[in-house]
């Protein structure tokens, strides 16, 4: 059962949970209605849990395996793709979903299936998640020495 003591897995999972908890807390203080625990796992918002997870993993890989290792190169590429996707692809498709929802409402059309619009992240949310991941990656690395 080495999976649960792996600093790589621990950093990514811990960063995810901390980011989602912070996202819920930030939304609560911003005055949004948070009636259910479902808010803890929705996408979008500050900080990006995706960015926090991949940044935390990248930090642990860098410290444990070295920044000149092949696995660090892969982790860096993986982090870059995830963060780019959060800002560019997911954000754009979320905005398109909002526009579609407006069109359905404006023209009083009933979609065959109801749909949820999942928003992506702003650059600020991704940056916030990356900084959080960096901190959590450092904490996990030094705590597991």
TrEMBL record:
Domain of life, source organism: Bacteria
Transmembrane segments: 6-28, 40-63, 69-87, 126-144
Keyword annotations from UniProtKB, A to Z: Membrane, Transmembrane, Transmembrane helix
Native organism taxonomy: Bacteria, Candidatus Saccharimonadota, Candidatus Saccharimonadia, Candidatus Saccharimonadales, Candidatus Saccharimonadaceae
Entry protein name: Divergent PAP2 family protein
Transmembrane recorded as keyword: yes
Keyword Membrane part of the UniProt annotation: yes
